[in-house]
Design brief:
With 140 residues, the chain is mainly α. The chain folds into 2 domains: 79 residues, no CATH class; 47 residues. The chain contains 7 helices and no strands. 16% of the residues are buried.
Length: 140
């Protein structure tokens, strides 16, 4: 299984436009991995910060020609973090909400299960927020 940083660099390549150059593309990717890892250590940047920065760049539609271009954007991504919801965490939270509704069946449960199941993209985050605001998921 590839490391988290390898997956992040793949996202940079597939979603932000970075193209590894050189005769051996695998060597170029490995070199970028090494350089980014060393730069992250020097600057105290975590993989979570880098993942957040990729999401920030994707949302702002910033073209990235090199993974090193992400590092100066980490501060801006951290500032914008409340506006960026990681898809993985959103999926986990939504699944937990649906599971909660299944285990606490009441007259509103079918309504919320339907909404949480059908919502996708940004609407999923909005639906989850509404679900919490309706007082659902709390231990009562």
């Amino acid at each position: 299984m590839p490391s988290n940083l390898t997956r992040i660099l793949t996202d940079v390549e597939n979603q932000l436009g970075w193209v590894p150059t050189g005769k051996n593309i695998h060597h170029a990717r490995a070199l970028a991995h090494h350089i980014v890892t060393q730069a992250m250590k020097r600057q105290g940047i975590s993989e979570d910060d880098l993942e957040l920065t990729v999401a920030y760049c994707r949302r702002k539609r910033l073209p990235i020609d090199s993974p090193l271009q992400l590092l100066p954007l980490v501060t801006k991504a951290r500032e914008a973090a409340p506006d960026i919801i990681k898809p993985h965490n959103l999926d986990v939270e939504t699944t937990a909400a649906i599971t909660w509704e299944h285990s606490h069946l009441d007259p509103d449960s079918l309504y919320w299960i339907g909404r949480l199941t059908r919502s996708v993209g940004p609407a999923r985050a909005d639906t989850l927020t509404e679900w919490h605001q309706a007082g659902r998921g709390e231990n009562t």
